Amino acid sequence: MKLATQDKPFFPTDFKDKFDYVRGLGFEAFEIDGKDLVRNFEEVKAASEQASLPVVTACGGYNGWIGDFDEKKRENGIREIQEILKCLGEIGGKGIVIPAAWGMFSKRLPPMVPPRTEQEDREVLLDSLGKLNETAVETDTKIYLEPLNRYEDYMINKLQYAQELIKEGNFSSVEIIADFFHMNIEEPKMDESLTAVKEQLGHVHIADSNRFEPGNAHLDFLPGFEALKQIGYEGYLAFECRVLGEPAEERYAQSVTYIKKCLKEIGVS
Ligand code: LER
Ligand code: MN
Question: Domain 2-265 class?
Answer without folding.
Answer: alpha beta
